[in-house]
Every structure is written in structure tokens, then in C-alpha cells.
């Protein structure tokens, strides 16, 4: 019996832990400076809680923006709840971390993309990716998204 280390799953846990920590800091102290987030999530995830009209309008995925106005941010180990404004209509949302597809902070050109491709042989297909072209996954109006380039973590190390 050969046991292997599931690096893809470990990376998902670590990166979702990073998102949780960032959201906890925002809950406690607010968004610092120019920071803001584009969060794309799977609206069909069984634990997502959004208004029926939103799930009807966004039947596959939805991108929300945390920037100027948000309220009731609650952060747990499984996900977060937040009230956002949709055309002057505040709506509560619950988004589990497992439903997140991308998390982007364009103010500092940081972004994560969680890939969930099905593959029998390639365990790294499920690894989250740090992306180089933040505008690519942060562009809400762009209906067709291109594949992002993977950035080596070595490029972030200080020498």
C-alpha cells in the first residue's frame, strides 16, 4: 500500500485559511487603505445561502465586491456571512470557503484561483494558483475568462 501526501488538498486548506484570516482582520478593523476584494463563488454549492433572485440571476457563479459598503460580516471556520448592497437593496449572503473560486485584492495585485478540475492522474490540478494577471480574474464585466499564468512563489521571496 502506497500512501501519498495530498498536496492539493493541503494547499486548499492553507489558502482558505489565509482568506479566513484576512476576513477576520477586516471584521475586526475594517478594510485598510485601498484594499477591496472580488470574490467569485459557486452559487450552486449546497451550503451557499443567497436570495432566490440572485441564484436565478447567477445560476453558476457570482462575483461580489467587498469595498465601500458592507455590513454584518461574520467569519467562521467554514465560511463567512455578509450583507452587501445590490442596487440599494441590502442582501445577506453566506459563502462557505469551499464554494470560493477566486479571491482577488486588486489594490495589491494579489489573487487566488481554486481549480477543481477532475483528473485521475494529475493530483496538482486541484491546487490553488496564485495568479499573475489579477485584472483577468477581477474583471466582473468580462463574460469570457482566459486562463491565468501561474506565478512561482520564488518571485515573492526577498533576497
**Sheet with the most strands, sense and barrel status:** 5 strands, antiparallel
What are the segments in which pLDDT stays under 50 over at least 5 consecutive residues? 117-128, 131-152
> Rg from C-alpha positions?
16 Å
Q: What is the mean predicted local confidence, pLDDT? A: 78
Q: Biggest sheet, strands in spatial order? A: 2-1-6-7-8
Query: What amount of the residues lies in strands?
Result: 25-35%
Secondary-structure-based class equals alpha+beta
The total of helices stands at: 3
Q: What is the tally of beta strands? A: 8
Q: What is the end-to-end distance?
A: 42 Å
Helix content: 10-25%
SSE run: HEHEEEEEEEH
Shape: globular
Write a compact overview of the structure shown:
It contains three helices and eight strands, in the order αβαβββββββα. It is of the alpha+beta class.
Layout of strands and helices, then pairs:
Blueprint: H1 7-29, E1 37-42, H2 52-57, E2 61-66, E3 70-75, E4 79-85, E5 90-96, E6 100-105, E7 110-113, E8 129-130, H3 134-138
Antiparallel strand pairs: 1-2, 1-6, 3-4, 4-5, 6-7, 7-8
Describe this structure in words.
With 159 residues, the protein is α+β, with helices and mostly antiparallel strands. It has helices at 7-29, 52-57, 134-138; strands at 37-42, 61-66, 70-75, 79-85, 90-96, 100-105, 110-113, 129-130. Helices cover 21% and strands 28% of the residues. The strands form 2 sheets. Strands 2-1-6-7-8 form a 5-stranded antiparallel sheet. A 3-stranded antiparallel sheet has the order 3-4-5, covered by helices on one side. Residues 117-128 and 131-152 have low confidence and may be disordered.
